[in-house]
Structures are given as structure tokens and as C-alpha cells.
Amino acid sequence: MAAQSIDEVIARLQSLDQSLPPSDGVRWFNRLYLDVTLAVRTYCRSGQLKAPPFLEQLDVYFGNRYFDAFDAAASGSDVPECWAPLFDARHDTGIAPLQFALAGMNAHISHDLAIGVVATCEALAIEPADNSPQHGDYDAVNIILKQTEAQTKQWLLTGAIKELDHAVAPVDDAVAIWSIERARDAAWIRAEVLWQLRGHPELTGTYLAVLDGTVGMEGRALLLPHAVSGRDPLLAGARWAESAVRSASSWLGHLLRP
Predict the structure, then answer these.
(1) Four-point Cα dihedral 21, 43, 141, 59, nearest 10
(2) Is residue 129 part of a domain?
(3) Is 1 contained in some domain?
(4) Rounded to 10 degrees, what is the CA torsion of 131, 186, 87, 115?
(5) Does residue 19 lie in a domain region?
(6) Backbone angles phi, psi at 231, to 5 degrees
(7) How far is CA 133 from the centre of its chain?
(8) Is residue 128 part of a domain?
């Protein structure tokens, strides 16, 4: 059953945190996502929101996207390309906890978040505009998320390693510098593009298919079993593809705006 509130999202994340063993790479993404969602809930209840329903509804939709992918993998059903690297490699003992965590966040934010912004805006009959109060709330949590991300990353590089019964390769800076804030900024641009594409279902489908595949390629680069070098051709290709998607998103957004 889909979560109906941010409390239900957190409850399931906590349940998974308790049930997934250290040998399952999904556990490490789930831990980072749990910490991030707890931070978002705290902000939602701080009284600082300019458009209160938006951020919490977005977080609920967002959480359910992850649960859908998790349940699909558990049942042996097809998993979206963006999520496939994490679930395919979840038992690979050569991959560090931080790599698993960031591969999951990459799938969730770089692909799912834009779709969630559009779905939430449609439900609330609003537009994802740059100067909207909803965008203000969306951006306001970046500082909190940045702090949470830094703390959890440090734990994943140190404390999480102690829970494993095997050694893993060191994690290169090319993986460690992945940023929630930058990924969220790009996701909002994609949401604006998807909003403008609503009357063009064929183009929307093509855009989402390309995005799904691109994010999947990035995920596989983040999960290379050995330390990922900035000169690695797969990572370089993923970065190029991501840059192309961002450029296309920005160009399409300006082109399609009335």
C-alpha cells in the first residue's frame, strides 16, 4: 500500500533500515534517504513554509517512487533503468556503502524528482515556476539537506564500513563529491521542461526514456567496484550525457515557454 503521509514514508524507511542486512547495498541508500527525509519532515513542521502542502506532498510522492522500485525488484518485475544499477549490484561485495547510497540518490533525484514535482503541481493546480512560493520552499531545504548529506556521507565512509564483514576499495573523490543540492537544482529544470511538454505526449515519452537511460548509466559509473577516477571513460561518458540532458532541458524550457 502506498504511503499517504510523510510519517508513513519514514515508518517504511525505518522498517527497511531494520530489516535490510549490511550485505545488501540497498540498505546504505535507504539509510541516507531516511536521514534526508527526517530532515525534510523537520523543516516541513518548522512553520517556515511559504506553500505548506507542496513540499510534504512532494516528499510522499517521491517516497512512493522508491518503494515502487524496491517492490518491483523484490517481486522480480522490471525495474526502471535509472534504478536497475543499484538493485542489480546490491550484493556486490566490492562496492563501498557510499557508492550504493549515491547511486540510489542519483536515480531518485536525477530521474524521479522532476516527475514528482510535476505530479504534485498538477494535484495542487499550480505551475512549477522559478519565482513561485513552492520553488522557494523547494530551495529552502537545500541547506538542511546539504548538512544531512555531509554527516551521513562521513558515516558511510567510516562507521558503515565497520558493519561489513569484508573489505571494500577506497572511494574516489569523483564519487564522494556527488551533491544533492546540484542534483535537485537540475531536477527543477527538468520539471519545468516536463510541464511545458504536457501537451506533447510522444515527445514527453522520448524525453523521459532518454533521461531514464542516462541516469542509469550514471548509476553504473558510480557503482564501479574500484575507486572511480575522474578520468574513467564510463564516468566521463555519464557526465557528458548528463550535461547533454541538462542543456537540452534548459533549451527546451526556454523554447516552450509562452
Answers:
(1) 60
(2) yes
(3) no
(4) 40
(5) yes
(6) -95, 0
(7) 22
(8) yes
Residues in contact with 24: Cβ distance below 8 Å, sequence separation at least 6, in sequence order: 90, 91
Domain range for 71: 6-256
Comparing CA positions, the residue from 185, 163, 55, 179 lying closest to residue 105 is 179
- Count the domains in the chain: 1
- What predicted TM-score, i.e. pTM, was given to this entire model? 0.82
Each residue's pLDDT tens digit in the chain (258 positions)?
899 999 999 999 999 999 999 999 999 999 989 988 999 999 999 989 999 999 999 999 999 999 999 999 999 999 999 999 999 999 998 888 888 988 999 999 999 999 999 999 999 999 999 999 999 999 998 888 878 777 776 656 654 444 444 444 455 554 555 778 889 999 999 999 999 999 999 999 999 999 999 999 999 988 987 544 444 444 444 454 455 455 555 545 554 555
Q: What is the DSSP secondary-structure string of 173-239?
A: HHHHT--HHHHHHHHHHHHHHHHHTTT-HHHHHHHHHHHHHHHHHHHHHHT-SSPPPTT-HHHHHHH
**Cβ burial 17-43 (10 Å sphere, 16+ → b, else e):** eeebeeeebbbbbbbbbbbbbebbbeb
Q: Could you write out the DSSP letters of every residue in 156-185?
A: HHTHHHHT-SS--PPPPHHHHT--HHHHHH
Cell readout for 100 is 550504493
Q: CA 51 from chain center: how many Å?
A: 22
Site of grid cell 548528463: 242
Instruction: Compute the residue count for the chain.
Output: 258
Q: Are 87 and 73 in contact (CB under 8 A)?
A: yes
For residue 227, give every residue at least 6 positions away whose Cβ sits within 8 Å of its Cβ, in sequence order, or none.
169, 170, 171, 172, 175
